[in-house]
Amino acid sequence: MNEQGIGASVRRKEDQRFLIGKGNYTDDINVAGQTHAVFVRSPHAHAEIKGIDTSAAMAASGVVAVLTGEDLAADGIGPLICGVTVTSDDGEPHRAPAHPALAQGKVNYVGDHVAVVIAESKSEARDAAELVDVDYSVLPAVTGTRSAADPGQQQIHEVAPGNVCFNWPFGDKDGVEAAFAAAHKVSKLDLVNNRMVTNPMEPRAALGEYNTGTDEITLHVTTQNPHVHRLVLSAFNQLAPEHKLRVVGPDVGGGFGAKIFVYAEELVVGWACRKVNRPVKWNADRTEAFLADAHGRDHVSTAEMAMDGNGKFLAMRVHTKANLGAYLSTFGTMVPSYLYAFLLAGQYATPLIYSEVKAVFTNTAPVDASRGAGRPEATYLVERLVDICASDMGLDPAEIRRRNFIPVDAFPYQTPVVQCYDSGDYPAALDKAMELADYDGFESRAAEARARGKLRGIGFSSYVEACGIAPSAAVGQLGAGVGLWESAQVRFNPTGNVQVFTGTHSHGQGHETTFAQLVNDQLGVPIENIEVIHGDTAKTQFGMGTYGSRSLAVGGVAISRACDKLVAKGKKIAAHALEAAEGDIEFADGSFSVAGTDKAMSIGEVAFNAYVPHSYPEGVEPGFDENAFFDPTNFSFPAGTHICEIEVDPETGVVEIVKYSAVDDFGRLINPMIVEGQVHGGIAHGVGQALLEGCSYDSEGQLITASYMDYAMPRADNLPSFDVDYAPTNPPDNPLGVKGCGEAGAIGAPPAVINAISNALGVKHIDMPATPENVWRAAQQATAASA
Amino acid sequence: MYEFNYRKVDSVDAAVEAIQQADDGKFVAGGQTMLPTMKHRLASPSDVIDLGGIAELVGVCVEGDTVIIGAMTTHAAVAASAEVQAAIPALAKLAANIGDPAVRNKGTIGGSIANHDPAADYPAAVIALGATVKTSRREIPGEEFFTDMFETALEEDEIITAVTFPVAEMAAYMKFENPASRYAIVGVFVAKTGGEVRVGVTGATSCAHRGLQLEAALGGQLDASGIDAVELPVENMNSDIHASAEYRAHLVKVMTKRAVEACAQ
Fold it and tell me: What is the pLDDT of residues A553-565, one digit of tens each?
């Protein structure tokens, strides 16, 4: 193995600048003449705005402008959009209420944007924001996912009767009903997928600059996809034409989905900088991040499985209510529909699946993708239900999984829910995980724990997920407004070093290292001589950004394809220089050589020849710089089995994770160290959802968990040292043989944890987050029931 | 943060004078509660009088059977003090687990008890150890110091100068942490001093207090066998998204038992 190439755990190139405080985050950028924006936000979950008096604010010290929704509308700045259409059961598209970037007559959640104050300093802007006098007429708030569409509920949007965005049935309803009617056994479970606040470490920020000379707006913004931001802001919000709008997402401190979307603040900053003809900067404080970042999850579901006498799954039926919040975020409709229902087969050969998703509006922050986006919700439901099935059938949880796994020889496997899984060996991952977890030794560990007064439990999660969303034609058929390919440009400079331009975006994933390794492996250039460039629409060609674990599986292949083109061109150049036939040129380890001879030249020399073409093959263009666009033929389907072992202190309900074993199939690993980091982070995310994180609104729509005083994030002492291993398969649809790894932990972990707790307590179910009090109560009830 | 006048003083007298002259002055010790509150614009004092320059308020010493901790001594200093560790190890341990490193290195014992967050740790120790709060004008018995949520016996212009703790024969603090803030959902400090066993409870109710029912069940002994039978009034307990009143009442007993067991070990 090449020590810097594929499979090498090289240290991350980008970490030096982060570790010495030289990262360049949006809030680090300050420009001459900059002003500061502070948003006036609604303190009410639901209210009509009778009037806004900005006069006192305008008169306050240092104020440059106070802008409202009226100003926005007068300038023709369009509302925020949702980019994916879901067709409701009445044949109509989902109901899409207007989502103005500054409120126009009504506010619909606490934190909704009412006005913006722009001042010379942030503190002056804050002071003046308090002087903006908004006359609210408060309306009753709708906050519950379960009850939002009930008869008699307060109506939020006129265009969405009954607060329903869409009602989306999917699958063979009659076939499923027939299978249930004939089943030996039906297992059923009601469960909640708890709402989460995504919480990237860096809060969102934006800095807009307008150049009167070029009529160009530069928007520095915390984004996972600068070109998508530019496209949406241009095409739908009329901020500026694409060629007059530069979007720069410099170093971004985590995204986890929350920075995919085009938010009101970003649009307003971009618009306001031209309006006041001064640079405008905004950065969210943590409270604003809690209130106004898109949240994740928030489903209430009923799941049922029909089985035969051997515990073989015959059919599954799912009813889900999904909370989309007050407005549709950029991809809000896609998460509880295509990203959710298409994964309900899990790892199992269940032949018939029917689901109905009712997406509802509430007076809460918009809900959109958050690490996993739909797949954690599907996986939690399937993997909890499978455990209930095991219990109902008197089978070991491993055994019922094994009986229902999609057989190894059935891949590629067409599920009944659209997806065709690329590759998988589910029993192999299960076996390896059981070995890693020492499943056979569990009973004796449980007995030893009982002697200490602790309840020990073990839980499985055999997950599959669908990432690297593709191909473009398929997502187009589903109602997406974009294609989902990726682009790359690989450019040699005359001196032989390399710049790699990618349309993906790194906000912590380590792309600058992984992609350099990929290029090193293919072209033989040391990674020190490779710079990976992303995150600036003025530097990189159009690209779709980073989300859905797509960067390597899609963007990496585009880079590889560009490298292939360089090698092909290099052969022509080398053949000329080495006075050989092109067909006799071989390329390996960065060197073009004439087969069977010692005549060779390095790729650096070829690059030099290409830029200084004094002696050059006829008909070959100068330059050594190639681009490629890659549109995959399928999603990528990482899978694995996670086994969580916990101990409950029955006296307090405290859950300690004592052992966590993860065996994943991510195909070929480029940098195993980075992959393991992604696994650790993903599991931590999933454990956070399972044990700690519960975003909560009260009945008036006030966010109760609006700070880290009340919203519990996972910390090191909540987590054990993870045992991580791999059971890779080779996905035939992916030219690099890779699968995505960024979300798998967050998808796989929650059911493993909850299955372990249910196992320890001997209860059917406990909802997430399994807080100490919830666990204590479940333990009390279990004790009472067994007494 | 709103604008305010900042004054740093170098003596207790100067601090008292400064606050008497201010419209709506506040003392700031380590600032670990006060500054975030001001940043959130939830407090807007006209004057902030910084006690950080008063050297005489800083330091730990043990005189005979008494540990004296200057009001401006940080939690980290108490935690790291060999004298406190030797005299009342449970107190050093409590200090070592307050907040996070930033809070421990800036936050002070005087600031903590003057603020009287009902979920703070120190109040349980002050009460259970029978400490005395020394101020610029008097000495206040620990159990009379905490009067209600964020309320104490202090006058507006009164400054804590030190807290004196009688050395206990045995003591232990058990804290059930809020998973988010890591404040005490319930914290119970049990101390045996001079043949008496006292229980200080924080986090459970609106005010740190002596657990008199718990003390009665212990009957002066480090024997927790009677604790389960205690019926604590649930209606007095705090209730929030992290812990209901019923659960808190339960936790008070569990933490008491565990503190008693830890004392006995």
Answer: 999 999 999 999 9
